Amino acid sequence: MILVNYLAAVALLCIGLYAVLTRRNMIKMVMGLSLMEASTYLFMISLAYRAGSTAPVLLNPPPGKSTQSLVHGNVADPVLQNFCLTAVVIGVAVTAVFLSVVVRIVQHYRTLDSDRVRDLRG
Amino acid sequence: MAGLAVALGIAMAGIPREHAALPAVARYAMEVALPRWGLTEPVNEIVYGTRGFDTFGETFLLLAAVVSVVVITRSREARRGYFGESQAGQREQQEGDPAKPADAGEQEARAAERREQDDPAYGDPRPLETPDDEPLGTPAPEMAEAMTVVTRTAIRMALPILAVAGLYLVAWGYSPGGGFPGGAVLAGVLLFIYAAYGRRRIAGVVRPGLLEGIEMAGASAIILTELLGLLLRGSFSANWLPLAPPQTILSGGIAQLFSASELIEVGTGLAIAIFALIGMGHDWTPDETNSTGESNSTTSQGGGES
Prior knowledge:
heterodimer; A: mainly alpha; Helix Hairpins; B: about 65% helix
């Protein structure tokens, strides 16, 4: 029933996108973007899951299994776990960029309301 | 929105589920992890070995993000530390219209700001080091630098464990861990010290000159590690170190070197980004009382300065 996880990731992505599109508070927009990021983590980790699999670690194999049987056996997908591992750290740094931009905008316009930040309006 | 949700939901029904076979790239990584890299941890082997080029790119994406934060948060005043906004506060004080009297809220905020800058005219010139000596019933907010003895003791207990855990994640590279989580843990250690003891305690270590230097050293170590593979073995990010026996600290060849450099890069990078964000502020543009047309010109002016 990993499909439930996939659908939860879709729901998270849509909630995040909804927040970005409808909120005027820029902090909430950044929170929406973070939520969209988090949905991709959930999606990739769910995509890595295999029914009845073990972790892709060859150290101390579970009882009754050898390292070689693990190599060719039923394990979770390590490539997607790798993506998730790096994406989390990048996500933190990118959120820091968003937040610093928001702080600068607030200092300039003295408002968090994106609707009142209109100087770029042609 | 609803359409997007439905479309994505339908798409989800078509992608591989838990009974699908492992993709070839994952199976390949499982197979080469032990013989070619001597690593019993395929995820680490993928991060720093077979997909090393990908990680290389991610590292410099992280670096680009950190550099953007540093550039965006750079203040208008010349300053060497993350904390030292006295000049900006003074300038703001002067830039405000002297004819217009400040309202009560603004006065309160300015008094607090001056107090923060150790101005004796606005209250206790030297705030208490810790809130422990404050008499009971003192109105909040506490002005002390550090937190209470309870928090400090708890953090003092947790810190060595956290710091060792962060280093362990990297050093024992043949078990789950690696430079990315290790670096995040070490950045958390710095934040804990800041939260518990205040900025004075970490001011010696957490300053841009030092952190940025270490960060660049980590980045150059990564570039060097990967380039030496190209020079010595003929392919970028190839392993050029002798393989140590599996399940030792050195097993994995350049994967461990890459991982340790990544620890430095991620740890200092996150610390720089976070402290740059904490340290920014007091850089408000002066209040606008003019029409919108005027504020356009000041905006471009301010953008050029900051």
